[in-house]
Amino acid sequence: MAESIASAQSPFNPDTHRVGRVLCFAAHPDDIDFAAAGTIAAWTAAGVEVSYCIMTDGDAGGFDPAHRAEIIAMRAAEQRRAAELVGVTKIHYLHERDGYLEPTHEVMKGVVQLIREVRPDVVLAMHPERNWNRIQKSHPDHLAVGEAVTRAVYPAVENPFAYPELAEAGLAAYKLPWLWLYAGPDERENHFVDVTDHVDTKLKAIHVHVSQHPDVGAMEAVVRSGMQANARRGGLPEGRSAEAFHVVAVNGPGTIAGF
Q1: Which DSSP string do the residues of 39-58 spell out, in sequence order?
Q2: 225 three-class SS
Q3: Distance between CA atoms of 84 and 77, rounded to whole angstroms?
Q4: Is there a cis peptide before residue 155, judged by omega within 30 degrees of 0?
Q5: Does domain 4-249 have CATH number 3.40.50.10320?
Q6: Would you say 184 and 131 are in contact if contact means Cβ atoms under 8 Å apart?
Q7: Which residue, of 16, 65, 199, 216, is most buried by count of CB atoms within 10 Å of its CB?
Q8: Which helix (H) or strand (E) holds 141?
């Protein structure tokens, strides 16, 4: 598995904390590939089961007016091929409208339902805080994903009386161990994963989303330089590449119920 480099503030120790199943949330097809495809490729190569939940259909994406009628099917196909490149075959959609996503109870219930079904060790999701250094990371749908997932993770996922119809349908409450957030403010990031061995795979996954990249060369240059900058901030040797996360411990040995 790729080497994880935790800063002094990160609660996650890759040497002692087991990751066997991961559920990733994103607003649009391609969000996960930009932020975490290297880490995901490393996880799946090590036998970790990873699945995706894309909250919108990406229907407002793309640049070619000729694609409007088929953009939803096009983007779903792109995401499926990109996911397969990093070892992921399970993709869920909430089918919200692109650009209109909000952390409503309907959306949060869908998140709670999926987390209780999958019962992952790690939920990976977009950050609910805006990144002022690169505001493109903070599309309103991205922030809505972060807020909806964070609200769902605590307390609803572990509260049997939240959305009681889920428990009545057999989906028992579940205490999630870890929440990993991406695309947030740099100052929040406390965990860096060395993905140097998976850079080419990550870029191949991003390249699959051809409907979204009018300038492929510029896109690739930005992604490469960003991963190198992450590695430097994470204290990795020169020439390495990393993905960065804000890791939050949700439930662990010291967690008290309700606190």
Answers
A1: HHHHHHHTT-EEEEEEEE--
A2: helix
A3: 11
A4: yes
A5: yes
A6: yes
A7: 199
A8: helix 140-153
Give the whole-angstrom CA distance, residue 35 versus residue 86: 13
Q: How confident is the model at residue 259 (pLDDT cuts 50, 70, 90)?
A: low
Task: Report the candidate in 250, 230, 257, 259 with the shortest Cα–Cα distance to residue 17.
Answer: 250
pLDDT band for position 216 (50/70/90)? confident
pTM here?
A: 0.94
Place of tokens 């209780």: 116
Angle at 27 between CA 26 and CA 33, to 5 degrees: 50
How far is it, in rounded angstroms, from Cα 8 to Cα 250?
A: 18
Element (H, E) at 33: helix 31-45
Proportion of the chain above pLDDT 90, given as a percent: 79
Amino acid 41: pLDDT:
98
* Residue with more model confidence, 212 or 174: 174
The structure tokens listed for 125 are: 């999701």
**Tokens linked to 2:** 């790729």
* Residue 115: DSSP 8-state: H
Tell me, rounded to whole angstroms, the distance of Cα 209 from its chain centroid: 17
What is the total residue count of the chain? Answer: 259
Element (H, E) at 247: strand 242-249
Helix (H, G, I), strand (E, B) or coil at 173: coil
φ/ψ of 153, rounded to 5, equals: -60, -40
